[in-house]
Design a protein that fits this description.
By secondary structure, the chain is α+β, with helices and mostly antiparallel strands. It is 19% helix and 29% strand.
């Protein structure tokens, strides 16, 4: 089982909720064609954050959403124009071992997402601490929780209620160096949302547009 996280940007004056809600019937057919599942699309204003899974490697979101591309901006950086840019998995509580291990056991669980900004000078530190935590304490949180990174923007996908269970594997580290004051250690890594006079908010929950 492979997990995918992507980011996109709607064009000016495009309503992402309307665009993708109307596109849902076609999307569901495309998902069957490309064996994709557990797709969730979230937005923050005109920014889009996509999560889905597939037993197949290299399931491209351009194949799932070809009918929506006119409403999306083109991202630079490659020879081939693209509407969706991949986000990098920098932390997960568990990794899929096989399809049976990854089956959802709670049909009432709902996807939710949060985003946060990292200080650029703290990115290496953040990734280091999270890799250490991930490999020292696999299964310490929601089984399906994952943090993906693009530039300095993080997308945290999870499901509620959380599924917390012991994974069928051991982490790659036998050390015990994860800081006990995790929140205090992490806080200096972030650029808070809001104004300086407002209460500090690190992770901002963003609304779900579609689930398929």
């Amino acid at each position: 089982m492979h997990r995918y996280q992507f980011r996109a940007q709607c064009r000016e004056y495009i309503d992402p909720v309307q665009l993708f809600s109307e596109a849902l019937p076609v999307l569901q057919n495309r998902m069957k064609e490309f064996s994709s599942s557990h797709l969730s699309l979230f937005h923050f204003g005109s920014q889009l954050f996509l999560y889905y899974e597939s037993p197949f490697l290299s399931v491209d979101p351009h194949e799932l959403f070809p009918h929506c591309e006119d409403g999306l901006e083109t991202w630079p950086g490659t020879d081939k124009p693209r509407k969706w840019v991949p986000m990098i998995d920098i932390f997960h509580y568990q990794k899929p071992v096989n399809e049976s291990h990854w089956l959802r056991k709670n049909p009432s669980a709902k996807p939710y997402a949060r985003i946060a900004h990292l200080k650029q000078e703290e990115m290496a530190s953040y990734v280091f601490y999270h890799y250490q935590y991930q490999e020292e304490k696999p299964g310490d949180g929601d089984k399906y929780g994952i943090i993906a990174l693009h530039e300095n923007l993080m997308f945290f996908y999870s499901e509620d209620p959380a599924t917390v269970e012991t994974p069928p594997y051991s982490g790659s580290l036998s050390t015990s160096n994860t800081p006990s004051d995790w929140a205090g250690t992490m806080e200096p890594h972030f650029i808070p949302w809001g104004q300086p006079t407002e209460a500090t908010q690190i992770w901002l929950q963003i609304p779900l547009i579609i689930r398929a």
